[in-house]
Each structure stands twice: as C-alpha cells, then as structure tokens.
Design goal:
The complex is a heterodimer of chains A (about 400) and B (about 280). By secondary structure, chain A is α/β, with parallel strands linked by helices. Chain A has helices at about 5-10, 20-30, 35-50, 55-65, 85-95, 95-100, 105-125, 130-145, 165-170, 180-190, 205-215, 250-260, 290-300, 315-320, 335-345, 360-370, 380-390; strands spanning about 195-205, 225-230, 235-240, 265-270, 275-280, 290, 305-310, 345-350, 375. Chain A has a five-stranded parallel sheet, with helices on one face. Chain A has a two-stranded antiparallel sheet with strand order 1-2. In chain A, helix 1 crosses helix 4, helix 7 runs antiparallel to helix 8 and helix 10 (about 180-190) packs parallel to helix 17 (about 380-390). Chain A starts with a helix and ends with a helix. Chain B is α/β, with parallel strands linked by helices and about 280 residues long. In chain B, about 45% of the residues lie in helices and about 15% in strands. Chain B has a five-stranded parallel sheet with strand order 2-5-8-1-9, with helices on both faces. Chain B has a two-stranded antiparallel sheet with strand order 3-4. A two-stranded antiparallel ribbon of chain B has the order 6-7. The longest helix of chain B has 18 residues, at about 265-280. The termini of chain B are far apart. Classes of the chains: A alpha/beta (about 400), B alpha/beta (about 280). The interface of A and B includes residues 26, 46, 187, 209 and 213 of A.
C-alpha cells in the first residue's frame, strides 16, 4: 500500500525495516489512523522512526510522498508560518514563467533567483523601494544563511493555504548526525572497557559459595567477591594554547566524556611538543611545572597514554634542542617522546586537525613517525580506531 | 478504550495516536524526550485513564534483565536446608517474582512502566527482547513456562544516555515528546493550577520561553520546572506586573531558583543582567 513511501524513507536514510512496515500495515488494518491524514502521519512516524534524529528526514520524505494530500483534510489555521509571505514576495518579484518553473526548481535555486532579483531591484530603485525596505533584507537576514530551513510548501501556496504539520519541520534541530557530542564520545570510549574485580568484597560469589559449601560437607560457607568495574588506566596529555585554541570545544567534550568514563584517569598539559616539563593546572603553568620524569616514574607502564594535540608547529620545535618557543629545552622533543613511548607501549595521538590536511604540515609527519603511525583524527571514527588500538 | 489525555495530563494529538496504536496492537511504546516533559507521568496517566493497575519497574545502573523476570534465592534455600525446614523441598518457595512476571500473571492486563531503560547496562534491552515480544519466559529452576494471561501495555522511557539496540527498537512504537509550544504549555499550566490568574500565566510563560531561548544554557528549564515555579509564584503572591517589568535591573526573574538548576546558568543570567544594566545607563 505504502511501499513507495517506505522505499523513499529507506533511501533518505531512515533505518526502517520490513517488520516496522508490517506493523504500520497492521495498525492501519486496526483502523487506528481512521482516515485522517494527520493521524496517519503520527501513526507512521511512531511506527517507522525510532530515533528523534531521524524525525526531520521522515518529515521531509512524508512531505514529498504525500504531496497534495492535505486537500483531504481541513486546513490547519494555526500552522501559518512566515514562509507564506515570503512566498508571496517571490510571486511578486518573479515573473509568471519563473513561477511556473518553480516546481522543477529546488528551493535553494529559488532562493538564489529570488536573492539575485532582489539585489537587482535594490540597485535599480536607488534608496530602496518600499518592498525592499520593509521586506527585502529581512527575509534574507532571517533565512538567507539557512536556506534549507525554508520550504516552498505545497503547489497551491498562492492561496495562502496553511502548511501541514510535517512541513513545519519541528525536529530540524535534532538531526545532528554529523556533530560529535559527549554521548557519542562516551560510546566510542566504551571500547576501552576492561572489567576487573578489585577492592572490597561486596557481592556474593554464588559458584564459589556452592563449591566451598560442598567442600565443607554441606555446612554453608559464604564467599564474597568485589564488584566489577572498569579498571582501565588512562593518562592523557593535552596540548594547550596557540594553535589549539581553535579546537577547544571538541577537546572539552572529549575531556568531559573521558572524565566520566574512566575511574583511573590522570591528565597533564603541555605546549606544542612534549619536553621536560608538564603541568596539571593550566592556569598555573609557569609557577608549578612538573618534571616529565616524575610522570614516567609515578605511573606504571600499564597506563594507556593518549596525546591530544594538533601537532602543528615548526619542525625545529620537535627535533632540535632549544627549539621550544617558550623556554630553553636542553633535550629535543623527539628524545622526550621516545622516552615516554618506551615506557607506555599502548599510546595513541588524537589530532583535531582533519586528516586530509596532515600532509601539509611536516611536524605532523614527524610526530606520526615517532608515534609509529598511531595518530588518529579527533572524530568519532578516529576515536573508535584509536580505542581499538589501545584496547587490544 | 481510547486514550485521550486526562484531567491532569495534556496529551498532544501525536502522542494520543502513538499511545492508542501501542494499546491496540499490544506493542511496547518507547517514549523519549527532554527531562521533565512528563515521560514517566504518561504511564501513570494512561493507567488512570483506562482504569488498569500500574506496575512500575525503575531501572538503575545495576539492574539486570533477569531481575525483571524472577530471582532464585539459592542462599536462603541453602540456609533452610541446613535448618531442616520442610519448605526446602519445593524450589518454588525460593523463586521471587520480578515485575514482568507480576505483570504477566495479573488478572487484567496492567500498564507496565519500564522507567529509564537507558540507565541499565548496554545489553539490558537485548536481554528482554523475547520476553517483550512474545510476553513469555521460562523458569529454568522449576521448568515452568510463564506466559502473559493478557498482554500488558508496556511503556518504556529513555533519557537517551545510551543508544538502544536496533532489534529492540524495531519491536516498539516510538514517540518523542517534543517540548510543548506556548499554547500547549498554557493548557498544561491550566490543568495543574485551574484558579491561577490568566495574566500571571501569560507573563510567566513569556518569561519562561525567553529564558529557554537564551543561548548557551547548560540545562534549559522544562515543563516540570515551570510548574514548580508557577506554584512558587502563586504561593509568594507575586503580582504579574513584576514579571512583565522590562526594567533592566529585573532581568533575572523572581524565584529563579526553581527554573535555573545549575550554577553556571545563574552566573550566565547575572552576567547578562549586568551587561544590560550597563547598557541601560
């Protein structure tokens, strides 16, 4: 019945399966939508979409698949939106033939045409005509930067018909499939779980109790074990300042996710490249530096080491003594990197710079070599790869 | 047996369709949405509206799927056997029923609320797949098969802390409770505080939505916070004019503690107030 609709949903990337489609059919058979378009929209949404991030895709597909359907039900007066008058503006500005072409044209193109036309008009009527003055800049101020936020609505737009629910696209903001959020980072970090039983014995160990009781000739002998928790130990070194300022947000997100995921977590800061000093509080970096040697001596080799930094600097800062931009370093950064990596065999470097630009900066190449290729971009995919590397 | 909202719960049409679909087809309904938009309350109200008992299962991070079915208390059986208690012969005496079993065994189909399913371990929903789907499970200790006498109406809530597995999602209806618009919000307030003055509601809602629109807030206030706030406003007898006064120095709403729950947000507001006061001078 709605195969076409179902297939276009799949094409649009809504992960609906045959089972859900059958559920929809079953629900239709039970007359839940009761021949009302709005109810059918709600019902199919509830059946086929299982994640709020897909709601907007669904709305768009529904809009295209059931175009013209709104004739069947009462227009919803409440649903009037400013696009209405924008559309009227389009009608006034564009010629009749251009309006006829609208159907073939995408909205983006329409906006482009409209914008051009308005610009022309601004020039022609110097000082700005009334139309431009009141409406000309505002629609583009409001919508120009976000053209996909504006839709053309239905064919009969000229009559000022209201736009239906799915055309309001209420869930636009939830479609954040590209954004890397704390929750997603946590999911990626979960690969690094190593459960172990440590600490106070609080849980009853049933198999061992039974074994011990049998051993004890049937007299009950309770055995307890400590609770399971994540025992992975992580040491993170963050590059701060300078070129890293542009990546602060993603680093903050990573940091907050890491902090809640690992119980054994140590973090320190460095600038550009690792030298003989690091610091644990970024505000007091000049007053209270710590020796990198202390770090190596304090934390045992079973800690997993994660560098976070853009690795973008002059190559001299890594390879030459005295190369640091901040102080006189007696030994080159390469030496310090080698020392740390000798101790911590499980180590990765997360780089917020996009992978495709890595070849443009020689310092990234040097550090990658030092890390023996274990540098990953700070994206979900990269994080996932990095965690696999650390995990095995 | 149609759900149309109740005298204390305002249901939007899309929510009604989703709930009715779940009731008619006897499939679970998964409800998501911002905290404080009434996900848990929904189950209570459905139970009240269709006059069925409500069984609540609150999930915690330590909850295991098995606990919802049954638990076998091997230790107390062992202890009883040491004491020579006669009831030790029947293993059934040591099987403790879980919430799902309770719901399956009920005389009339109850409403079963599985609250905050995302709090549990990542495998939790997968462990319940078959039980939720066929509404039956097997008790290994007694060799008994427990099947639902009537399929309960299952409402599952999630706060999105973990992704739920696809196989689980496929078996559910899904509803995302969007944040109510101003009109729905006014109806919600009316349902909860019928004698409130109309202009107070308007002013309070205006201030509330303005606060929600402030960019960069850590935790936006939600419906339940608004209701608390209005309750406070009524209790303190704050005149609506106070809320309306666009006087610069009153940028922070009175009794803001009910709305702003994080220190950073309060600071953000104080900063904004400071800036606008300086500009106003």
């Amino acid at each position: 019945m709605f195969v076409e609709f179902f297939l276009s949903l799949k094409q649009a990337g809504v992960p609906a399966s045959l089972r859900e489609y059958l559920t929809l059919i079953e629900a239709m058979k039970h007359n839940i939508a009761a021949y009302k378009v709005d109810d059918f929209y709600y019902l199919s949404r509830s059946c086929l979409v299982k994640d709020e991030r897909n709601l907007d895709k669904f709305d768009r597909v529904f809009g295209t698949c059931f175009k013209g359907l709104e004739f069947l039900s009462e227009p919803d007066e409440k649903a009037k939106i400013p696009e209405d008058w924008l559309r009227k503006l389009a009608e006034r500005v564009l010629s009749a033939e251009e309006m006829a072409k609208l159907k073939a044209m995408g909205w983006d193109e329409l906006m482009e045409t409209l914008k051009k036309r308005l610009e022309e008009q601004t020039k022609r009527h110097q000082g700005g005509s009334k139309m431009i003055g009141t409406a000309g800049t505002s629609p583009f101020g409001a919508f120009g930067y976000n053209p996909e936020g504006v839709r053309m609505g239905q064919d009969e737009g000229r009559h000022g018909r209201a736009v239906k629910v799915w055309d309001q696209r209420l869930y636009k903001n939830l479609d954040d499939s590209v954004e890397i959020g704390t929750r997603n980072i946590k999911m990626a970090l979960r690969r690094l779980r190593r459960f172990a039983r440590e600490g106070a014995a609080t849980e009853l160990d049933l198999p061992d109790t039974i074994r011990a009781t049998a051993h004890n000739a049937g007299i009950l002998d309770l055995k307890m074990v400590p609770e399971r928790h994540n025992s992975v130990k992580v040491l993170i070194l963050f590059d701060v300042g300078g070129s890293m300022d542009g990546h602060i947000k993603v680093c903050e997100e990573l940091f907050s996710a890491v902090r809640s995921e690992f119980k054994h977590l140590e973090y320190r800061y460095f600038h550009n490249c690792l030298y003989e000093r690091i610091w644990s509080d970024n505000r007091r970096r000049h007053n209270e530096p710590q020796a990198t040697w202390d770090l190596i001596h304090t934390y045992p080799a079973d800690y997993k080491l994660i560098f976070v930094g853009d690795a973008t600097m002059s190559p001299y800062e890594i390879t030459y003594p005295g190369g640091s931009v901040e102080h006189m370093n007696e030994e080159p950064g390469t030496e310090w990197m080698r020392r740390v990596l000798d101790v911590y065999s499980r180590a990765v470097w997360l780089n917020p710079v996009a992978e495709k630009y890595w070849d443009n900066s020689p310092s990234i190449g040097i550090l990658r070599q030092l890390m023996r290729g274990r540098m990953y971009p700070l994206t979900l995919g990269g994080l996932d790869r990095a965690m696999r590397e650390l995990g095995h | 047996m149609k759900f149309k909202g109740t005298d204390s719960y305002v249901a939007t049409p899309d929510l009604m369709v989703a709930v009715n679909a779940a009731i008619t087809l006897q499939r679970p309904l998964l409800v998501k949405g911002e905290p404080g938009t009434g996900k848990t309350i929904l189950a209570h109200e459905i139970a009240r509206a269709i006059k069925k008992p409500l069984i609540e299962w609150h999930v915690k991070s330590t909850t295991k799927a098995q606990q919802g079915l049954y638990e076998y208390d091997a230790v107390s059986r062992l202890r009883d056997s040491q004491l020579g208690d006669a009831k030790v012969q029947d293993i059934g005496n040591y099987i403790r029923r879980g919430k799902l079993w309770e719901a399956f065994a009920a005389d009339e189909a109850p409403v079963l609320l599985i609250d905050e399913i995302d709090k549990a371990d990542i495998e939790f929903p997968n462990d319940l797949l078959l039980e939720i789907d066929r509404m039956e499970f097997f008790v290994y200790e007694t060799g008994e098969k427990i099947a639902a006498r009537q399929r309960p109406i299952v409402i599952i809530t999630s706060n999105n802390e973990k992704e739920l597995p696809d196989a689980f999602l496929r078996r559910c209806f899904f509803h995302y409770i969007a944040f109510p618009d101003k009109e729905t919000m006014a109806r919600i307030v009316k349902v909860h505080y019928p004698d409130i003055q109309k202009n107070l509601v308007n002013e309070a809602l205006g201030a509330f939505f303005e606060i929600r629109d402030v960019p960069g807030m850590k935790k936006k206030p939600s419906t339940s916070e608004l209701l608390d706030w209005i309750k406070l406003l009524m209790a303190e007898d704050i005149p609506p004019e106070t809320l309306r006064s666009k006087d610069r120095k009153d940028l922070i709403p009175p009794l803001y503690g009910a709305l702003l729950k994080s220190e950073q947000d309060v600071h953000l507001f104080e900063r904004l107030a400071f800036i606008s006061r300086r500009e106003g001078r």
